[in-house]
Design goal:
mainly beta, 3 helices, eleven-stranded antiparallel sheet, outer membrane lipoprotein receptor (LolB), chain A
Length: 181
């Protein structure tokens, strides 16, 4: 299945550039959409991401650059499910092991809600480096290196991130933010 995902993404590679939506302060609950590129080992893929997050749950949709769903990941009540485009359902207690098992690479969902807000996860050891504007430029946490490549204007909201760990690199471009009520 993971090879099919990467083959589809590579065949349909190409990303439309969208103008980011205006952003206010990022709340705990949010929705973001954007583009994602993943390299792991000798494999690579790119596509779109749509993510709805609140303190108790997450729902992510990974799709090809043309919008065809590849994987839907739902975290709720301490359980994670991943549904593939061919409607196969997988479950685990954490996203990282589940995405590695099914997709072949680890999605760091435990820290990602904080990292996309431009901050370290509270209560977890971290090493940071700030840029000239005193925003995070680099963060090392939970075995991941998170590089903040661009911010949306003066809002302090990251717009481009690169996450790497061992032989995995994930690039995320956030095109739209929406705070959830």
């Amino acid at each position: 299945m993971r090879h099919l995902f990467f083959l589809l993404c590579l065949l349909l590679a190409g990303c439309a550039t969208l103008e980011p939506a205006p952003v206010g302060p990022i709340g705990e609950a949010f929705h973001l959409s954007g583009r994602v590129a993943v390299k792991y080992g000798s494999e690579a893929a790119s596509g779109k991401i749509s993510w709805q997050h609140d303190s108790g749950s997450d729902e992510l949709l990974l799709s090809t650059p043309l919008g065809q769903g590849v994987a839907r990941i739902v975290r709720s009540d301490g359980m994670v499910t991943l549904t593939t485009s061919d409607h196969k359902l997988y479950q685990a207690s954490d996203v990282e092991s589940l995405t590695e098992q099914v997709l072949g690479w680890r999605l760091p969902l435990a820290g990602l809600p904080d990292w996309v807000r431009g901050r370290a996860t509270p209560g977890v050891a971290a090493k940071t480096r700030l840029d000239q504007a005193q925003r995070l430029a680099e963060l090392r946490q939970s075995g991941w290196l998170v590089e903040f490549l661009a911010y949306k204007g003066d809002s302090g909201v990251p717009q481009q991130l690169r996450l790497s760990r061992a032989d995995v690199e994930i690039r995320l471009v956030i095109d739209q933010w929406r705070n959830a009520p």
